[in-house]
Amino acid sequence: MNVKISPKNLSGEVAAIPSKSQAHRMMIAAFLSGASPCLSIDSSSDDIEATKDCLLQFSGSDTPVFDCRESGSTLRFLLPIAMALKNKATFIGAGRLPSRPLSPFKEQLEAQGCIFSMGEGETEICTVTGALTGGTFTLPGNVSSQFITGLLFALPLLDENSEIILSSPLQSALYVAMTLQVLTLFGIKIDIIFDENSAYSAFQIKGKQKYMRPEDMTVEGDWSNAAFWLAAGALASSFDCSVTCSGLNLASEQGDKKITSVIEAFGGNISKNANRVTASPGKLRGIEIDATDIPDLIPILSVVASVSSGTTTVINAERLRIKESDRLHATYDCLTKLGADVEELSGGLIIKGKEKLKGGTVSGFNDHRMVMSMAIASICCENPVIIEGAQAVNKSYPHFFDDFKKLGGDVVVI
């Protein structure tokens, strides 16, 4: 699906969709407690459906095939859980997922009893045999935090006690904090060791623990996707415009809650009231953005940077290259085609702000966050923006363009 978006300010109020990151975790914990993984949420997505369908496979064959589709969270969360509960499992996927790295996670699981046979086709990721046993798992902190989350879910199920040791500082630590919050909600005890900087150093997990279903399994609003609307409010060319996103937990452990402080650092205006956050335009200027804990925000923040006076530097963003797309290159490519001044570095971006972008045709790179970012970029353009492959929004936000229109956006399928 290709869409054409005419430049218009967005203004109004939209409700936050359920958090994809928390929904994954709540579904998995619910399943491990013996409850149904089918949470009652008012909006789903391809990634959430992938996790739900994979969890339902546990009650079927002794040698299940888990179709993770394009969801890295589904694969990395469920792989150690599968080997804690099954003696053999096959994982398949689509898009870039079969080629995304599993090391050094794979080697740690192999050291604790798992045997990997890596897939050779376009869809098979791996077949794993052998029961996972407890022990010591050592992982660098600059690999995906999803590996840590998968282990934190699986290790309490084992007979043995276990420990996860971080050999370097943990990036995306707030995603692990979200995991720990869900585990606590379901009665799982994790002992956390902090280093001298009060950062995560190790996790000690007792075996033979039981997941217990809590009374409240509500999934909170998604800050990652609310970020697009808040950026839209800050980018409006009229001070009469503002965008409000409701249904957000201001005390959330979601790392992308930082969108509010980053927009304020750019010079945009943010106001908060109960569960509602409103963004409105201000005088935007370039800043430095550290992507360590907010990698998913970099595409939309780069859009804001492209029309902020001065220079914005994005650092510590190497891991964006192994997302649904190479998001560093995709961000460079898309914004450059729209007329922005962007330099791509090995681990970041340098963006020199312009007053306006010109518009043009961009690829969606089969990446939901790139499609949504370029849709918001249309606000800053002189001419329409055409996005190829806009159906990628289904991965996390299937009705994104409906909400875009609700806020006054002009989008048509071509």
Structure, explained:
The protein has 414 residues and is of the alpha/beta class. It has 12 helices and 20 strands. It has helices spanning 20-32, 46-57, 72-85, 105-111, 145-154, 173-185, 223-235, 259-266, 298-306, 327-337, 368-377, 400-406; strands at 3-6, 12-15, 65-67, 88-92, 115-118, 124-129, 136-139, 162-166, 190-194, 200-205, 243-246, 269-273, 276-280, 288-290, 311-315, 341-344, 349-352, 360-363, 385-388, 410-413. The strands form 5 sheets. A 4-stranded mixed beta sheet has the order 18-19-1-20. A 4-stranded mixed beta sheet has the order 2-11-13-12. A 4-stranded mixed beta sheet has the order 3-4-6-5.
Structural class: alpha/beta
Oligomeric state of the chains in view: single chain
Give a quick account of the main beta sheet: strands, pairing sense, barrel closure: 4 strands, mixed
Mean pLDDT, to the nearest integer, reads: 94
What sort of overall outline do the alpha carbons produce when their principal axes are compared? globular
Annotation, overall tally of beta strands: 20
Strands of the widest sheet, in order across it, are 18-19-1-20
Strand content: 15-25%
Summarize this structure as a short list of keywords or feature phrases:
20 strands, globular, 414 residues, 12 helices, alpha/beta, 4-stranded mixed sheet
